[in-house]
Amino acid sequence: MIAPTGDDFGRRKLPRGLTLRALVPNAITSGALCCGLTGIRFAIGGDFKAAVLAIILAGMLDGIDGRVARMMKAQSRFGAELDSLSDSISFGVAPALVLYLWSLQQVPRFGWFAALALAVCCALRLARFNAQIDLKDQPHKSAGFLTGVPAPVGAGLAMMPIYLWIASGNEMFRRPEAVAAWTALIAFLMISNTATLSWGSMRPRKAIRLEVIALFGLVFAALLTEPWLTLVGICAVYLALVPVGVVRYARVRRRAGDRARADAGQNA
Question: Where does the UniProt annotation locate this protein (predicted)?
Answer without folding.
Answer: Membrane
